[in-house]
Design a protein that fits this description.
Elements lengths: L1 H17 L4 H14 L12 E5 L4 H6 L1 H10 L4 E6 L1 H7 L7 E4 L8 H16 L6 E4 L7 H9 L4 E5 L1 H5 L19 E3 L8 H11 L15 H10 L8 E6 L11 H12 L4 E6 L5 H10 L5 E3 L6 H8 L4 E5 L2 H8 L4 E4 L4 H4 L8 H4 L7 E4 L30 H12 L3
Parallel strand pairs: 1-2, 1-4, 2-3, 4-5, 5-6, 7-8, 7-10, 8-9, 10-11, 11-12
């Protein structure tokens, strides 16, 4: 390993002298030493050691859960390691399809130069000693240079990731040039068919491209008895013979958050039509919104768990409820994995979805997967959002187009789902 580190430092010095971060120089420097150190030889007995690079958010990992299961089915004897964000690692600890979960703090949206010290340290401390035979990166879009760099630096013989050509095929002619994602560091760039639009389907395609059949594309989440015990404690006192509705008020960005006041209106209208109780779910950033809901609703109708439940405990809470109503968020995808009907509020307007390239559409890429669902969208984009090509249809960094959806539509969606429609 000291030999590997010596050559990595030489590469860094060459990049410094060139004044540019060059992956070609990395391959030129490291390939001979990887071969000399045995990283290009098969392991004894034909065993596979597989490294999955997935530093995405909660919802993405739930959508990739079918990939983890099918990868294990394809390689039943393999030792599989998953690189994961620390928060997501808590969820993945109970995944039965991986042998090891490594939480790492690498921001894949940052310029790769900023991530180099962390990636070198990770390889030296955890990856080089394993002699991985394969790496997989199922991420379809966004910044992949750091992941492709780490895939190569890990020393893996085969490096499989989705190619940028897949994204270019979905962009309009005016979409501009994409930044080179350093695919020359891969051995197997995978081009997904343009007909594959959903993130869960795309995540499985690298296995299809390698010649494997997909037996089951359903998603999963995992929790244990302790998580369920904590969930039942948090739900102490919920009324019997009432329909429990999870209200997901969090989201990855403010523009994707439906106004909490309108959620309150919908909840009040539902109480006037039947016997319901509500469980407010979200992260620490939504604590004030959770408290607002609790104060506005009649006593004994809301259990405010916003910022109070760990991730796996939240999954267990969902398993005791009958329906999800809320934003497009990771908890929504967890509800789908648990077989719950879901009513999801999107910022993307209907008139944008009609002509939107799939790469830009949240409703297309992150629709509820294999679930009974209703997608709630504004009819028309507002202002500058009408003409701009912005991911998710709305360009504003705050709740904007999404605000047009009336609370009555949420009520109707819930009643239709509970009625089996």
């Amino acid at each position: 390993m000291s030999n590997l580190m010596e050559h990595v430092r030489r590469w860094q010095e060459k990049c410094r002298l060139a004044g540019e971060f060059l992956p070609e120089l990395l391959m030129k420097e490291m390939e001979p030493v990887f071969r000399a150190e045995g990283y290009r030889e098969k392991l004894p007995g034909g065993q596979e050691k597989i490294l999955i690079l997935n530093l995405n958010a909660i919802g993405d990992n739930i959508l990739y859960s079918a990939f983890y299961r099918e990868l294990r089915r394809a390689y039943p004897r393999a030792f599989i390691t998953l690189l994961s964000k620390p928060l997501v690692a808590q969820m993945m600890e109970l995944c039965p399809y991986v042998n090891r979960v490594l939480p790492v703090k690498i921001d894949i949206t940052a310029p790769p130069e900023r991530n180099v010290p962390l990636m070198i340290q990770l390889c030296a401390e955890a990856l080089w000693k394993e002699h991985y035979t394969m790496t997989f990166c199922t991420q379809w879009s966004d910044e992949k240079r750091s992941l492709n760099f780490l895939s190569y630096l890990s020393g893996a013989q085969e490096r499989i990731a989705i190619s940028d050509s897949s994204i270019k095929a979905c962009l309009p002619s005016s979409g501009g040039e994409l930044l080179d994602q350093w695919e020359n560091l891969l051995t197997h760039p995978v081009i997904t068919p343009p007909s594959l639009m959903h993130e869960a389907g795309r995540a499985l395609y690298p296995l299809v491209d390698l010649g494997f059949d997909i037996a089951d594309d359903r998603t999963e989440v995992w929790f244990d008895g302790r998580d369920d015990f904590l969930a039942q404690q948090l739900l102490t006192g919920v009324p019997e013979n009432a329909v429990g509705i999870a209200v997901g008020i969090g989201a990855g960005g403010a523009g994707r958050k439906y106004p909490v006041e309108k959620y309150v209106q919908a909840m009040q209208q539902l109480l006037a039509q039947g016997k319901f109780f509500f469980v407010a779910l979200g992260g620490a950033a939504e604590r004030a919104d959770g408290q607002f809901i609790e104060k506005q609703m009649p006593q004994g109708t809301v259990w405010n768990l916003v910022g109070r439940a760990e991730l796996r405990t939240t999954f267990a809470v969902l398993s005791h409820l009958q329906l999800y109503l809320g934003n497009d968020t990771g908890i929504m995808h967890a509800a789908c994995a648990l077989g719950m009907p879901v009513a999801v509020v999107y910022r993307e307007a209907v008139d944008k979805s009609k002509d939107f390239p799939g790469v830009f559409s949240e409703v297309t890429r992150f629709a509820p997967w294999r679930a009974k669902a209703i997608a709630l969208q504004p009819e028309h984009a507002l202002g500058a959002c009408r003409d701009e090509l912005a991911y998710g249809g709305c360009r504003e960094p705050k709740a904007h187009c999404i605000c047009q959806i009336p609370s009555e539509e949420l009520v109707e969606a819930v009643l239709r789902l509970l009625g089996g429609k």
